[in-house]
Amino acid sequence: MPSHASQAAGARRIRAALVVAVLILGAGAAWGRPMATDEPAVVAVAPAADPSAVASARAYAADVPDGRARVLLTRTLAEQLGVLHRLALRGVPIATFGLHRRASVAPVRRHVRGARIVTDPRTEDHP
Above 90 in pLDDT, residue 51? Predict the structure, then answer.
């Protein structure tokens, strides 16, 4: 028969697991929440290592009325894919500059119906 101390420890572990589960579910719900009106009208995404793409993204964002554009710079292909996927799921219009088409843009277009992604001509087919 288990001791009182081991039963109490088990109960604490169960409560801790429930708290973690609630926090994870809450974070997941917040992640998929629709954009607030103070969020950008469009997000321009470019690889940080490509100065030309960064300049194009910043110029594009500067031309958006009311300054409601945001520029996000990515460091890796995985980050490109993650950023595009997260934004597309939230319904944010996305303009890409110099991103890898097959590794980041195409998978998001395939998996997120209605994703609003516009690529510029510089978007690469190969790394």
Answer: yes
